[in-house]
Specification:
- The complex is a heterodimer of chains A (about 110) and B (about 110).
- Chain A has strands at about 5, 10-15, 20-25, 30-35, 45-50, 55, 65-70, 75-80, 85-95, 100-105, 105-110.
- Chain A has about 110 residues and is an all-beta fold.
- In chain A, strands 2, 4, 5, 6, 9, 10 and 11 form a seven-stranded mixed sheet that branches. In chain A, strands 1-3-8-7 form a four-stranded antiparallel sheet, with no helix packed on it.
- Chain A is globular.
- In chain A, about 40% of the residues are buried.
- By secondary structure, chain B is mainly β.
- In chain B, the strands form two sheets. In chain B, strands 2, 4, 5, 9, 10 and 11 form a six-stranded mixed sheet that branches. Chain B has a five-stranded antiparallel sheet with strand order 1-3-8-7-6, with no helix packed on it.
- In chain B, strand 4 (about 30-40) and strand 5 (about 45-50) form a beta hairpin.
- The mean pLDDT of chain B is about 95.
- The chains are: A mainly beta (about 110), B mainly beta (about 110).
């Protein structure tokens, strides 16, 4: 158990809908990362927050947004969902930027 | 888009064999290089965090080296065991905000 929690574990929704994925980092970790893993693809970095501020952006679509709250938990919002958004979404946390990352169990999103 | 490449893509070795894989990354704007181990149906787990040119890290039978000037890192596994079967990922951190790019991984299968 990495100490990083993600909810929900599984999510099935229809095209056009909006969902929110939640991540709680390990106690004491200030940095949160979001990744997408689509079928047969590697880990695609989406976005990183550090102590509530956005610090780096990867290949995140405009339909997606995220934030990190004062208690350091983070949410990833996915809107106007398309079939291609079906993927495993991982959250990871680290003590500081550049430290080893601890990954959560992931949220499996299926868009039908 | 930063080019982080891993080779080989997959590898089958006999139990007891030693093996190694490569991670290639841009030689400019280096901040850190991480190695992760990712078992099927689990989440990635950190193996090593490497920050200095010439770094060598070791954990049991697994070790890694880093050459930031030429942009590569090697991961070595001595005396492979079936429990070493996993995908090994490298993650390259660049720039002031440490944007992270993961390689696509080397999938190792150790045959008993």
């Amino acid at each position: 158990d990495s100490g990083v929690t993600q909810t929900p574990k599984h999510l099935i929704t229809a095209t056009g809908q909006r969902v929110t994925l939640r991540c709680s980092p390990r106690s004491g970790d200030l940095s949160v990362y979001w990744y997408q893993q689509s079928l047969d693809q590697g880990l695609q970095f989406l976005i990183q927050y550090y102590n509530g501020e956005e610090r780096a952006k990867g290949n995140i679509l405009e339909r997606f947004s995220a934030q990190q709250f004062p208690d350091l938990h983070s949410e990833l919002n996915l809107s106007s969902l398309e079939l291609g958004d079906s993927a495993l979404y991982f959250c990871a946390s680290s003590r500081r930027q550049g430290d080893e990352q601890y990954f959560g169990p992931g949220t499996r999103l299926t868009v039908t | 888009i930063l080019n982080v490449e891993q080779s080989p893509q997959s590898l089958h070795v006999q139990e007891g064999d030693s093996t190694n894989f490569t991670c290639s990354f841009p030689s400019s704007n280096f901040y850190a290089l991480h190695w992760y181990r990712w078992e099927t149906a689990k989440s990635p787990e950190a193996l090593f965090v490497m920050t200095l040119n010439g770094d060598e890290k070791k954990k049991g039978r697994i070790s890694a080296t880093l050459n930031t000037k030429e942009g590569y890192s090697y991961l070595y596994i001595k005396g492979s065991q079936p429990e070493d079967s996993a995908t090994y990922l490298c993650a390259f951190y660049s720039g002031g905000y440490q944007k992270v790019t993961f390689g696509t991984g080397t999938k190792l299968q150790v045959i008993p």
